[in-house]
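Hey team,

Filing this mostly as a record. A colleague (T.K.) asked me to run one chain through the structure pipeline before their review meeting, and I want the input and output archived in the tracker in case anyone asks later how it was produced. No errors, nothing strange. Just documentation.

Input sequence:
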Amino acid sequence: MAGKNNIRKQTGFIDVFVNESSFLIFILVLFVTATLVYNSAQAAMWFGFAIAGYSVVSNDSIQTIGTFLSSNSHQKWWVLWLYIGGLFVLTVTLSFFLFDGDISFQRLSTKGFNEAPVSFDFLQIAAPIVLIIITRMRMPVSTTFLLLSSFATTGGAIHKVLGKSLSGYFIAFAVSIVIYLLLSKYFKSKFKGKAHPAWNITQWITSGALWCLWIMQDAANIAVFLPRQLNSTELLAVIGIIFIGLGVIFYQKGGRIQQIVTTKTDITDVRPATIVDFIYAALMAFHLVYSTVPMSTTWVFLGLLGGREIAMNLTKSNHKSLIKTLRIIGKDILLAFIGLVISIVIAIAVNPLIREEISGWFS
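Output structure:
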């Protein structure tokens, strides 16, 4: 038996080593390709878009389809993929027809982002590759800052994005604390035993609505590489690339970053997962109507989860549990802050306007 256990341990180690080796080779190939294509505007545009499409959805999956994946882990991956992928096609196509070829729901019409790039810097193409690495490290970063900041044509645009994102975090944090302080005991008393089948239907509807709202807000992070008005052929290419990328993400069950969701209290139960999705969807809808300025939805989601965890632990009156919760929240914020710093470093290296604005902060 001991021999068999050793074999299993060795096999597990080999599997991890092979997977990590394959990942590193994949990243190396991407960087080499970026080096070869960034001087060709057309090739760089589509390469950057394809990598950004996968990396953005992969990193942001914790906030959009994370609870959906966790509470539907018993479902076949391709069923979930077809549902979410179908909603993506419908939502992007709607924006295409409503806004004359614009698939970002006018997020890129904001001054500073309304001009499509005519040439690309290497770091602009490399940024989505960096995002893949960050996601592999289970770091929830602002894909808005990481990708949009290097394309801003006015310095004030990033300042607006940062302001809206930080206010989004605190609004979500406050709303979440109030709701769960008032209702967490009620939820706990009602959410016992096996969930009624109606909850599954409600959760699919709520998750679908949240996913569509996220597309309306964060499609800009992907579309920033593309012309601001697409033709029909370009739309089909966009749909095909993202649809396939979604398939990969669902096949991987969200990847390693999904652990940020699964470590939260009771999030694998369809009922609390639905409540989280509903509150987040309402916050997204508010910010979508409030302003067309792009924002970091990651910070809003972390604020929601942070407020929820604190409120639920305060109702338990468990000092040790609260300390543990604060550590988890602090870790999430730290990782997001590290991602923000990386985003700013890339933006400074690529964009002279950002360098001027940041130097102005200290003058």
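Quick notes for T.K.: Residues 1-18 have pLDDT under 50 and may be disordered. The chain is about 75% helix and 0% strand.
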